Protein backbone atom coordinates (compact mmCIF):
# COMPACT_ATOMS: atom_id res chain seq x y z
CA UNK A 1 0.00 0.00 0.00
CA UNK A 2 0.98 3.66 -0.29
CA UNK A 3 2.35 5.43 2.77
CA UNK A 4 -0.44 6.47 5.12
CA UNK A 5 -1.16 10.14 5.77
CA UNK A 6 -1.30 10.52 9.53
CA UNK A 7 -3.28 13.03 11.58
CA UNK A 8 -1.62 13.06 15.00
CA UNK A 9 -3.81 13.62 18.08
CA UNK A 10 -1.02 13.68 20.66
CA UNK A 11 2.01 15.87 20.25
CA UNK A 12 3.46 19.02 21.73
CA UNK A 13 6.33 21.45 21.56
CA UNK A 14 7.92 24.05 23.78
CA UNK A 15 10.55 24.07 26.53
CA UNK A 16 10.25 21.36 29.19
CA UNK A 17 11.94 20.69 32.51
CA UNK A 18 13.54 17.54 31.11
CA UNK A 19 14.68 17.09 27.52
CA UNK A 20 16.22 13.68 26.90
CA UNK A 21 19.15 13.42 24.49
CA UNK A 22 17.90 12.86 20.95
CA UNK A 23 14.64 14.67 21.66
CA UNK A 24 13.66 18.23 20.70
CA UNK A 25 11.46 21.10 21.87
CA UNK A 26 11.33 23.64 19.03
CA UNK A 27 8.30 23.99 16.78
CA UNK A 28 10.36 23.69 13.60
CA UNK A 29 11.82 20.40 14.86
CA UNK A 30 8.32 19.11 15.47
CA UNK A 31 7.23 19.95 11.92
CA UNK A 32 10.45 18.43 10.51
CA UNK A 33 9.85 15.23 12.43
CA UNK A 34 6.20 15.16 11.41
CA UNK A 35 7.31 15.25 7.78
CA UNK A 36 9.84 12.45 8.37
CA UNK A 37 7.10 10.30 9.93
CA UNK A 38 4.48 11.02 7.27
CA UNK A 39 2.33 12.99 9.73
CA UNK A 40 0.52 15.58 7.65
CA UNK A 41 -1.53 17.28 10.38
CA UNK A 42 -1.46 17.34 14.16
CA UNK A 43 -3.37 18.46 17.19
CA UNK A 44 -0.73 20.13 19.34
CA UNK A 45 -0.55 21.51 22.85
CA UNK A 46 2.17 23.65 24.38
CA UNK A 47 4.40 22.07 27.01
CA UNK A 48 4.10 25.25 29.10
CA UNK A 49 0.37 24.59 29.37
CA UNK A 50 1.16 21.28 31.05
CA UNK A 51 4.32 22.01 32.98
CA UNK A 52 3.67 25.63 33.99
CA UNK A 53 0.13 26.98 33.59
CA UNK A 54 -2.74 26.30 31.17
CA UNK A 55 -3.59 29.99 30.60
CA UNK A 56 0.02 30.96 29.91
CA UNK A 57 0.77 27.88 27.80
CA UNK A 58 -2.43 28.03 25.76
CA UNK A 59 -1.72 31.66 24.95
CA UNK A 60 1.83 30.82 23.85
CA UNK A 61 0.45 28.00 21.72
CA UNK A 62 -1.89 30.28 19.80
CA UNK A 63 0.86 32.78 19.06
CA UNK A 64 3.48 30.23 18.07
CA UNK A 65 1.42 28.05 15.74
CA UNK A 66 0.10 31.01 13.78
CA UNK A 67 1.06 30.50 10.14
CA UNK A 68 1.22 26.69 10.49
CA UNK A 69 -1.96 25.42 8.82
CA UNK A 70 -1.08 21.77 9.53
CA UNK A 71 -1.13 22.38 13.30
CA UNK A 72 -4.43 22.55 15.19
CA UNK A 73 -4.49 23.88 18.74
CA UNK A 74 -5.44 21.79 21.77
CA UNK A 75 -5.95 23.69 24.99
CA UNK A 76 -5.07 22.31 28.37
CA UNK A 77 -8.05 22.91 30.65
CA UNK A 78 -8.74 22.66 34.38
CA UNK A 79 -11.55 23.52 36.84
CA UNK A 80 -12.25 27.21 37.36
CA UNK A 81 -13.03 27.42 41.09
CA UNK A 82 -9.72 28.99 42.11
CA UNK A 83 -10.03 31.62 39.37
CA UNK A 84 -6.88 30.26 37.75
CA UNK A 85 -8.83 29.26 34.65
CA UNK A 86 -11.87 30.25 32.58
CA UNK A 87 -15.34 29.39 33.79
CA UNK A 88 -16.95 26.83 31.49
CA UNK A 89 -18.90 29.53 29.64
CA UNK A 90 -15.79 31.70 29.25
CA UNK A 91 -13.91 28.64 27.98
CA UNK A 92 -16.45 28.00 25.25
CA UNK A 93 -16.51 31.68 24.25
CA UNK A 94 -12.72 31.77 23.96
CA UNK A 95 -12.42 28.42 22.20
CA UNK A 96 -15.00 29.55 19.68
CA UNK A 97 -13.37 32.89 19.03
CA UNK A 98 -9.91 31.29 18.65
CA UNK A 99 -11.08 28.21 16.73
CA UNK A 100 -9.92 25.63 19.26
CA UNK A 101 -11.73 22.32 18.90
CA UNK A 102 -10.15 19.95 21.41
CA UNK A 103 -8.93 19.97 25.02
CA UNK A 104 -6.58 18.02 27.26
CA UNK A 105 -6.42 17.61 31.02
CA UNK A 106 -3.50 16.78 33.31
CA UNK A 107 -5.14 16.20 36.72
CA UNK A 108 -2.60 13.81 38.29
CA UNK A 109 -0.90 14.86 41.54
CA UNK A 110 2.42 15.14 39.72
CA UNK A 111 0.92 17.47 37.13
CA UNK A 112 -1.88 19.95 37.85
CA UNK A 113 -3.14 18.12 40.92
CA UNK A 114 -6.93 18.24 41.15
CA UNK A 115 -9.76 15.77 41.52
CA UNK A 116 -11.48 14.77 38.33
CA UNK A 117 -14.68 13.80 40.17
CA UNK A 118 -17.94 15.41 39.11
CA UNK A 119 -18.05 17.70 42.18
CA UNK A 120 -14.98 19.40 40.69
CA UNK A 121 -15.08 18.80 36.94
CA UNK A 122 -18.70 17.89 36.25
CA UNK A 123 -19.63 21.37 35.05
CA UNK A 124 -16.66 21.38 32.69
CA UNK A 125 -17.44 17.91 31.36
CA UNK A 126 -21.06 18.96 30.89
CA UNK A 127 -20.25 21.89 28.66
CA UNK A 128 -17.67 19.91 26.66
CA UNK A 129 -20.43 17.34 26.05
CA UNK A 130 -22.88 20.05 25.00
CA UNK A 131 -20.51 21.27 22.30
CA UNK A 132 -19.14 17.83 21.28
CA UNK A 133 -15.63 18.90 22.22
CA UNK A 134 -13.34 15.87 22.55
CA UNK A 135 -11.35 15.47 25.74
CA UNK A 136 -7.88 13.91 25.56
CA UNK A 137 -6.50 12.57 28.79
CA UNK A 138 -3.54 10.33 29.55
CA UNK A 139 -3.85 6.93 31.15
CA UNK A 140 -1.13 8.10 33.54
CA UNK A 141 -3.46 10.91 34.69
CA UNK A 142 -6.64 9.03 35.59
CA UNK A 143 -7.76 5.73 37.12
CA UNK A 144 -9.87 3.10 35.36
CA UNK A 145 -12.66 3.74 37.87
CA UNK A 146 -12.55 7.46 37.07
CA UNK A 147 -12.77 6.73 33.34
CA UNK A 148 -15.84 4.61 34.00
CA UNK A 149 -17.45 7.28 36.18
CA UNK A 150 -16.85 10.14 33.73
CA UNK A 151 -18.00 8.23 30.65
CA UNK A 152 -21.17 6.93 32.32
CA UNK A 153 -22.08 10.28 33.91
CA UNK A 154 -21.41 12.11 30.61
CA UNK A 155 -22.37 9.69 27.84
CA UNK A 156 -22.06 12.34 25.12
CA UNK A 157 -18.53 13.30 26.11
CA UNK A 158 -15.93 11.80 23.77
CA UNK A 159 -13.01 10.76 25.94
CA UNK A 160 -9.81 9.79 24.11
CA UNK A 161 -7.48 7.93 26.43
CA UNK A 162 -3.88 8.62 25.45
CA UNK A 163 -0.58 7.16 26.66
CA UNK A 164 -1.91 3.71 27.49
CA UNK A 165 0.55 0.87 28.09
CA UNK A 166 0.72 -2.72 26.92
CA UNK A 167 -0.20 -3.87 30.41
CA UNK A 168 -3.75 -2.44 30.49
CA UNK A 169 -5.88 -4.74 28.31
CA UNK A 170 -7.52 -6.50 31.26
CA UNK A 171 -9.04 -3.17 32.29
CA UNK A 172 -9.35 -1.48 28.89
CA UNK A 173 -11.34 -4.24 27.19
CA UNK A 174 -14.26 -4.15 29.65
CA UNK A 175 -14.23 -0.34 29.56
CA UNK A 176 -14.32 -0.32 25.75
CA UNK A 177 -17.15 -2.84 25.79
CA UNK A 178 -19.26 -0.80 28.24
CA UNK A 179 -18.39 2.76 27.19
CA UNK A 180 -19.15 3.67 23.56
CA UNK A 181 -17.83 7.19 24.15
CA UNK A 182 -14.34 5.94 25.05
CA UNK A 183 -11.60 5.98 22.39
CA UNK A 184 -7.99 4.81 22.58
CA UNK A 185 -4.94 6.60 21.24
CA UNK A 186 -2.68 4.08 19.52
CA UNK A 187 0.82 5.15 20.56
CA UNK A 188 0.74 2.87 23.60
CA UNK A 189 -1.27 0.00 22.06
CA UNK A 190 1.81 -2.17 22.38
CA UNK A 191 0.38 -5.46 23.58
CA UNK A 192 1.46 -8.07 21.06
CA UNK A 193 -0.99 -7.73 18.15
CA UNK A 194 -2.80 -5.17 20.31
CA UNK A 195 -4.00 -3.04 17.39
CA UNK A 196 -5.38 -6.13 15.64
CA UNK A 197 -7.10 -7.38 18.79
CA UNK A 198 -8.78 -4.05 19.53
CA UNK A 199 -9.91 -3.63 15.91
CA UNK A 200 -11.41 -7.09 15.90
CA UNK A 201 -13.18 -6.78 19.24
CA UNK A 202 -14.27 -3.14 19.22
CA UNK A 203 -13.83 -1.81 15.67
CA UNK A 204 -11.17 0.43 14.13
CA UNK A 205 -13.45 3.43 14.81
CA UNK A 206 -12.40 3.35 18.46
CA UNK A 207 -8.69 3.88 17.73
CA UNK A 208 -7.09 7.28 17.11
CA UNK A 209 -3.49 7.70 15.97
CA UNK A 210 -1.15 9.67 18.23
CA UNK A 211 2.64 9.90 18.26
CA UNK A 212 3.58 11.22 21.69
CA UNK A 213 6.30 13.39 20.12
CA UNK A 214 8.61 14.88 21.26
CA UNK A 215 8.69 12.63 24.33
CA UNK A 216 8.23 9.40 22.41
CA UNK A 217 9.37 8.55 18.87
CA UNK A 218 6.87 9.30 16.12
CA UNK A 219 8.43 6.64 13.89
CA UNK A 220 7.55 3.97 16.44
CA UNK A 221 3.92 5.13 16.53
CA UNK A 222 3.52 5.21 12.74
CA UNK A 223 5.11 1.76 12.37
CA UNK A 224 2.46 0.34 14.72
CA UNK A 225 -0.20 1.29 12.16
CA UNK A 226 1.71 0.85 8.89
CA UNK A 227 2.64 -2.72 9.84
CA UNK A 228 -0.66 -3.69 11.48
CA UNK A 229 -2.33 -6.79 10.09
CA UNK A 230 -5.64 -5.03 9.44
CA UNK A 231 -7.29 -3.82 6.25
CA UNK A 232 -6.17 -0.67 4.43
CA UNK A 233 -9.54 0.91 5.22
CA UNK A 234 -9.05 0.25 8.92
CA UNK A 235 -5.56 1.73 8.75
CA UNK A 236 -6.92 4.90 7.15
CA UNK A 237 -9.58 5.25 9.84
CA UNK A 238 -7.00 4.95 12.60
CA UNK A 239 -4.36 7.06 10.86
CA UNK A 240 -6.61 10.09 10.54
CA UNK A 241 -10.23 9.64 9.45
CA UNK A 242 -11.54 8.88 12.94
CA UNK A 243 -9.99 12.03 14.38
CA UNK A 244 -11.22 14.07 11.43
CA UNK A 245 -14.76 12.79 12.05
CA UNK A 246 -14.63 13.60 15.76
CA UNK A 247 -13.48 17.15 15.05
CA UNK A 248 -16.18 17.62 12.39
CA UNK A 249 -18.81 16.98 15.03
CA UNK A 250 -17.61 19.80 17.29
CA UNK A 251 -20.39 22.41 17.54
CA UNK A 252 -18.42 25.62 17.93
CA UNK B 1 14.14 1.66 -2.13
CA UNK B 2 15.62 2.77 1.19
CA UNK B 3 14.77 1.00 4.42
CA UNK B 4 12.91 4.12 5.60
CA UNK B 5 10.78 4.16 2.43
CA UNK B 6 9.89 0.49 2.82
CA UNK B 7 8.98 0.94 6.46
CA UNK B 8 6.78 3.95 5.70
CA UNK B 9 4.76 1.70 3.41
CA UNK B 10 4.61 -1.13 5.93
CA UNK B 11 6.66 -3.45 3.71
CA UNK B 12 8.57 -6.36 5.20
CA UNK B 13 12.34 -5.89 5.12
CA UNK B 14 12.81 -9.16 3.27
CA UNK B 15 15.99 -8.14 1.47
CA UNK B 16 18.14 -7.66 4.57
CA UNK B 17 19.08 -9.98 7.42
CA UNK B 18 16.95 -9.38 10.51
CA UNK B 19 17.66 -11.31 13.71
CA UNK B 20 15.67 -10.46 16.80
CA UNK B 21 18.16 -11.05 19.62
CA UNK B 22 15.70 -10.62 22.48
CA UNK B 23 12.34 -12.38 22.35
CA UNK B 24 10.19 -14.41 24.69
CA UNK B 25 7.40 -16.96 24.23
CA UNK B 26 4.30 -18.11 26.05
CA UNK B 27 1.89 -16.60 28.56
CA UNK B 28 2.62 -13.86 31.09
CA UNK B 29 0.91 -13.71 34.49
CA UNK B 30 0.63 -9.96 34.89
CA UNK B 31 -1.09 -8.89 31.67
CA UNK B 32 -2.66 -10.05 28.43
CA UNK B 33 -0.06 -11.05 25.80
CA UNK B 34 -2.02 -12.35 22.79
CA UNK B 35 -0.71 -14.72 20.12
CA UNK B 36 2.30 -15.60 22.24
CA UNK B 37 3.07 -19.03 20.78
CA UNK B 38 5.56 -19.90 18.04
CA UNK B 39 3.00 -19.54 15.27
CA UNK B 40 1.77 -16.17 16.55
CA UNK B 41 5.32 -14.92 16.72
CA UNK B 42 6.11 -16.15 13.22
CA UNK B 43 3.13 -14.18 11.87
CA UNK B 44 4.57 -11.01 13.43
CA UNK B 45 8.05 -11.86 12.17
CA UNK B 46 6.76 -12.34 8.61
CA UNK B 47 4.93 -9.02 8.71
CA UNK B 48 8.16 -7.21 9.46
CA UNK B 49 10.71 -9.41 7.70
CA UNK B 50 12.35 -10.83 10.81
CA UNK B 51 14.29 -13.90 9.69
CA UNK B 52 15.10 -15.40 13.06
CA UNK B 53 14.26 -14.79 16.70
CA UNK B 54 16.34 -15.87 19.67
CA UNK B 55 13.92 -16.94 22.37
CA UNK B 56 13.67 -17.25 26.14
CA UNK B 57 10.27 -18.29 27.47
CA UNK B 58 8.29 -16.13 29.89
CA UNK B 59 7.88 -19.11 32.18
CA UNK B 60 11.65 -19.41 32.48
CA UNK B 61 12.19 -15.92 33.81
CA UNK B 62 9.46 -16.42 36.39
CA UNK B 63 8.40 -19.66 38.07
CA UNK B 64 9.53 -22.59 35.97
CA UNK B 65 12.57 -22.66 33.72
CA UNK B 66 12.13 -26.36 32.97
CA UNK B 67 8.69 -25.75 31.47
CA UNK B 68 10.01 -22.68 29.65
CA UNK B 69 13.19 -24.22 28.25
CA UNK B 70 11.12 -27.16 26.97
CA UNK B 71 8.73 -24.73 25.28
CA UNK B 72 11.64 -23.07 23.50
CA UNK B 73 13.15 -26.43 22.57
CA UNK B 74 9.88 -27.48 20.95
CA UNK B 75 9.76 -24.25 18.92
CA UNK B 76 13.40 -24.56 17.86
CA UNK B 77 12.81 -28.16 16.75
CA UNK B 78 9.54 -27.32 14.94
CA UNK B 79 10.86 -24.20 13.22
CA UNK B 80 14.65 -24.51 13.03
CA UNK B 81 14.88 -21.83 10.35
CA UNK B 82 12.99 -19.27 12.45
CA UNK B 83 13.92 -19.79 16.11
CA UNK B 84 17.11 -20.06 18.10
CA UNK B 85 17.12 -20.67 21.83
CA UNK B 86 18.58 -19.18 24.97
CA UNK B 87 18.90 -21.63 27.87
CA UNK B 88 17.38 -19.75 30.78
CA UNK B 89 18.64 -20.47 34.29
CA UNK B 90 17.27 -19.76 37.75
CA UNK B 91 20.00 -19.38 40.37
CA UNK B 92 17.66 -20.62 43.12
CA UNK B 93 18.06 -24.11 41.67
CA UNK B 94 21.87 -24.31 41.59
CA UNK B 95 21.87 -28.09 41.55
CA UNK B 96 20.25 -28.06 38.08
CA UNK B 97 22.27 -25.41 36.34
CA UNK B 98 25.15 -27.40 34.87
CA UNK B 99 22.88 -30.19 33.68
CA UNK B 100 20.40 -27.73 32.16
CA UNK B 101 23.21 -26.06 30.23
CA UNK B 102 24.57 -29.38 28.98
CA UNK B 103 21.17 -30.80 28.01
CA UNK B 104 19.98 -27.78 26.08
CA UNK B 105 23.26 -26.89 24.40
CA UNK B 106 23.19 -30.44 23.02
CA UNK B 107 20.04 -29.47 21.11
CA UNK B 108 20.83 -27.86 17.74
CA UNK B 109 19.64 -24.26 17.72
CA UNK B 110 20.42 -23.37 21.34
CA UNK B 111 23.00 -20.64 21.08
CA UNK B 112 23.15 -18.67 24.32
CA UNK B 113 22.16 -18.15 27.95
CA UNK B 114 19.49 -15.85 29.35
CA UNK B 115 19.56 -14.52 32.92
CA UNK B 116 16.90 -12.35 34.55
CA UNK B 117 18.29 -11.23 37.91
CA UNK B 118 15.37 -8.86 38.56
CA UNK B 119 12.65 -11.48 38.19
CA UNK B 120 14.71 -13.97 40.19
CA UNK B 121 15.50 -11.42 42.88
CA UNK B 122 19.29 -11.60 42.89
CA UNK B 123 22.16 -9.34 41.83
CA UNK B 124 23.76 -9.82 38.41
CA UNK B 125 26.97 -11.00 40.05
CA UNK B 126 25.19 -13.46 42.36
CA UNK B 127 27.53 -16.32 43.20
CA UNK B 128 25.24 -19.00 41.78
CA UNK B 129 25.44 -17.41 38.33
CA UNK B 130 29.14 -18.27 38.16
CA UNK B 131 28.35 -21.62 36.50
CA UNK B 132 26.65 -19.78 33.66
CA UNK B 133 29.37 -17.16 33.26
CA UNK B 134 32.12 -19.78 33.26
CA UNK B 135 30.24 -21.80 30.64
CA UNK B 136 29.86 -18.71 28.47
CA UNK B 137 33.52 -17.85 28.93
CA UNK B 138 34.58 -21.37 27.95
CA UNK B 139 32.34 -21.56 24.87
CA UNK B 140 32.24 -17.89 23.81
CA UNK B 141 28.45 -17.99 23.69
CA UNK B 142 26.31 -14.88 24.29
CA UNK B 143 24.67 -14.21 27.65
CA UNK B 144 21.59 -12.00 27.45
CA UNK B 145 21.08 -10.32 30.82
CA UNK B 146 18.13 -8.19 31.86
CA UNK B 147 20.01 -4.97 32.64
CA UNK B 148 17.92 -2.21 34.17
CA UNK B 149 19.59 0.97 35.33
CA UNK B 150 23.01 2.27 36.25
CA UNK B 151 23.59 -0.17 39.11
CA UNK B 152 23.08 -3.15 36.85
CA UNK B 153 25.38 -1.75 34.16
CA UNK B 154 28.09 -1.11 36.74
CA UNK B 155 27.88 -4.76 37.79
CA UNK B 156 28.14 -5.92 34.18
CA UNK B 157 31.41 -3.99 33.96
CA UNK B 158 32.84 -6.36 36.55
CA UNK B 159 31.75 -9.36 34.49
CA UNK B 160 33.32 -7.92 31.35
CA UNK B 161 36.63 -7.66 33.18
CA UNK B 162 36.41 -11.19 34.56
CA UNK B 163 34.97 -13.20 31.66
CA UNK B 164 36.64 -11.79 28.58
CA UNK B 165 35.60 -14.57 26.20
CA UNK B 166 31.90 -14.49 27.03
CA UNK B 167 29.74 -12.12 24.99
CA UNK B 168 27.50 -10.03 27.23
CA UNK B 169 24.32 -8.56 25.79
CA UNK B 170 22.93 -5.87 28.07
CA UNK B 171 19.18 -6.26 27.56
CA UNK B 172 17.22 -3.03 27.20
CA UNK B 173 20.45 -1.13 26.56
CA UNK B 174 20.68 -0.33 30.26
CA UNK B 175 17.07 0.94 30.26
CA UNK B 176 17.27 4.39 31.82
CA UNK B 177 19.34 7.34 30.69
CA UNK B 178 22.21 6.97 33.17
CA UNK B 179 22.32 3.23 32.55
CA UNK B 180 22.44 3.80 28.81
CA UNK B 181 25.22 6.36 29.09
CA UNK B 182 27.47 3.89 30.90
CA UNK B 183 26.39 1.03 28.61
CA UNK B 184 27.49 3.12 25.63
CA UNK B 185 30.89 3.59 27.28
CA UNK B 186 31.17 -0.15 27.91
CA UNK B 187 30.38 -1.20 24.34
CA UNK B 188 33.15 1.15 23.25
CA UNK B 189 35.65 -0.07 25.84
CA UNK B 190 35.00 -3.83 25.79
CA UNK B 191 35.05 -6.02 22.72
CA UNK B 192 32.64 -8.49 24.34
CA UNK B 193 29.96 -5.95 25.37
CA UNK B 194 26.71 -5.36 23.44
CA UNK B 195 23.37 -3.70 24.04
CA UNK B 196 19.94 -4.48 22.63
CA UNK B 197 17.08 -2.18 21.73
CA UNK B 198 14.18 -3.79 23.61
CA UNK B 199 12.26 -0.99 25.35
CA UNK B 200 8.51 -0.63 25.73
CA UNK B 201 8.70 3.14 26.03
CA UNK B 202 11.79 4.36 24.26
CA UNK B 203 12.35 8.08 24.07
CA UNK B 204 12.31 10.23 20.92
CA UNK B 205 15.61 10.03 19.05
CA UNK B 206 16.96 7.20 21.20
CA UNK B 207 18.39 5.08 18.36
CA UNK B 208 20.02 8.08 16.70
CA UNK B 209 21.58 9.08 20.03
CA UNK B 210 22.87 5.55 20.69
CA UNK B 211 24.44 5.29 17.23
CA UNK B 212 25.92 8.76 17.39
CA UNK B 213 27.63 7.97 20.69
CA UNK B 214 28.28 4.24 20.48
CA UNK B 215 28.41 3.46 16.77
CA UNK B 216 26.26 0.83 15.06
CA UNK B 217 28.45 -2.26 15.51
CA UNK B 218 27.54 -3.21 19.08
CA UNK B 219 23.80 -2.55 19.05
CA UNK B 220 21.46 -5.49 18.47
CA UNK B 221 17.84 -5.44 17.41
CA UNK B 222 15.80 -6.87 20.26
CA UNK B 223 12.03 -6.50 20.44
CA UNK B 224 10.90 -8.35 23.60
CA UNK B 225 8.08 -9.91 21.52
CA UNK B 226 5.53 -11.17 22.60
CA UNK B 227 5.96 -9.48 26.00
CA UNK B 228 4.91 -6.54 23.88
CA UNK B 229 4.56 -5.94 20.17
CA UNK B 230 7.75 -5.80 18.05
CA UNK B 231 6.51 -3.19 15.57
CA UNK B 232 7.34 -0.04 17.50
CA UNK B 233 10.93 -1.08 18.19
CA UNK B 234 11.25 -2.22 14.59
CA UNK B 235 9.99 1.18 13.42
CA UNK B 236 12.40 3.02 15.71
CA UNK B 237 15.28 1.43 13.83
CA UNK B 238 13.83 1.12 10.32
CA UNK B 239 12.91 4.81 10.12
CA UNK B 240 15.68 6.22 12.33
CA UNK B 241 17.74 9.06 10.91
CA UNK B 242 20.82 6.86 10.47
CA UNK B 243 22.28 5.24 7.35
CA UNK B 244 20.98 2.01 5.83
CA UNK B 245 24.35 0.38 6.53
CA UNK B 246 23.98 1.23 10.20
CA UNK B 247 20.44 -0.20 10.16
CA UNK B 248 21.73 -3.43 8.59
CA UNK B 249 24.31 -3.73 11.38
CA UNK B 250 21.69 -3.34 14.08
CA UNK B 251 18.99 -5.43 12.45
CA UNK B 252 21.07 -8.52 11.83
CA UNK B 253 24.74 -8.34 10.94
CA UNK B 254 25.97 -7.73 14.50
CA UNK B 255 24.06 -10.68 15.94
CA UNK B 256 25.14 -12.87 13.01
CA UNK B 257 28.75 -12.12 13.90
CA UNK B 258 28.14 -13.04 17.54
CA UNK B 259 26.50 -16.32 16.58
CA UNK B 260 29.29 -17.21 14.20
CA UNK B 261 31.74 -16.85 17.07
Concise overview:
By secondary structure, chain A is an alpha/beta fold.
What characterizes the major β-sheet of chain B? 8 strands, parallel
Radius of gyration of chain B: 17 Å
Total strand segments of chain A: 9
**Spans where pLDDT lies below 50 across 5 or more residues of chain A:** none
Distance between the termini of chain A: 36 Å
**Major beta sheet, strand line-up of chain B:** 1-2-3-4-5-6-7-8
Question: Mean pLDDT score of chain B, rounded?
Answer: 98
Overall domain count of chain B: 1
SSE ordering of chain A: EHEHHEEHEHEHEHEHEHH
Give the H and E element order of chain B.
HEHEHHEHEHHEHEHEHEHH
CATH architecture of chain B: Alpha-Beta Barrel
Average pLDDT taken over every residue of chain A: 98
Question: Gap between N and C termini of chain B, in Å?
Answer: 32 Å
Query: Strand-residue fraction of chain B?
Result: 15-25%
Number of domains of chain A: 1
Sheet with the most strands, sense and barrel status of chain A: 6 strands, parallel
Strand tally of chain B is: 8
Which percent bin holds the helix content of chain B? 40-55%
How would you characterize this protein structure?
- The complex is a heterodimer of chains A (252) and B (261).
- Chain A has helices at residues 27-37, 47-51, 54-64, 88-98, 118-130, 144-153, 169-178, 194-202, 218-226, 232-248; strands at 6-13, 39-46, 71-73, 75-76, 103-105, 135-138, 159-162, 182-185, 207-208.
- Chain A is an alpha/beta fold.
- Chain A has a single domain, classed as Metal-dependent hydrolases (TIM Barrel, Alpha-Beta Barrel), CATH 3.20.20.140.
- A 6-stranded parallel beta sheet of chain A has the order 4-5-6-7-8-9. A 3-stranded parallel beta sheet of chain A has the order 1-2-3.
- In chain A, helix 7 links the parallel strand 7 and strand 8.
- Chain A is globular.
- The model of chain A has no long low-confidence stretch (mean pLDDT 98).
- Chain B is α/β, with parallel strands linked by helices.
- Chain B has a single domain (18-259), classed as TIM Barrel (Alpha-Beta Barrel), CATH 3.20.20.140.
- Chain B is 46% helix and 16% strand.
- Chain B contains 12 helices and 8 strands.
- An 8-stranded parallel beta sheet of chain B has the order 1-2-3-4-5-6-7-8, with helices on both faces.
- In chain B, helix 8 (150-162) packs parallel to helix 9 (177-189).
- The interface between A and B is large, with 45 and 43 residues.
Amino acid sequence: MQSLEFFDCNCSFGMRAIVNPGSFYKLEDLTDNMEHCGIKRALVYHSMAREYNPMVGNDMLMKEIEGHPSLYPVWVVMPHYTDEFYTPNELIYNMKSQRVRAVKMFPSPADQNYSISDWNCGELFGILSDFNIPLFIGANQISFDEIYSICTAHPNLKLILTDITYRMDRNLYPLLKRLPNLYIETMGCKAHDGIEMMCKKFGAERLIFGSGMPIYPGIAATAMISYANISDDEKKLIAGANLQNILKEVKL
Amino acid sequence: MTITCKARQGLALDDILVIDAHTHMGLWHNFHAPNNDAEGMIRSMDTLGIDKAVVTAHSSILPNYRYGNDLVANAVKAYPDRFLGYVTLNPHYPEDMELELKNFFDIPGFVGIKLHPSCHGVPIDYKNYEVAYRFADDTGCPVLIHVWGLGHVLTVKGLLDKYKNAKFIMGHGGADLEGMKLAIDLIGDYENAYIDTALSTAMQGNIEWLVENGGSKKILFGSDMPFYDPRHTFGRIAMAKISDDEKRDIFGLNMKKILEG
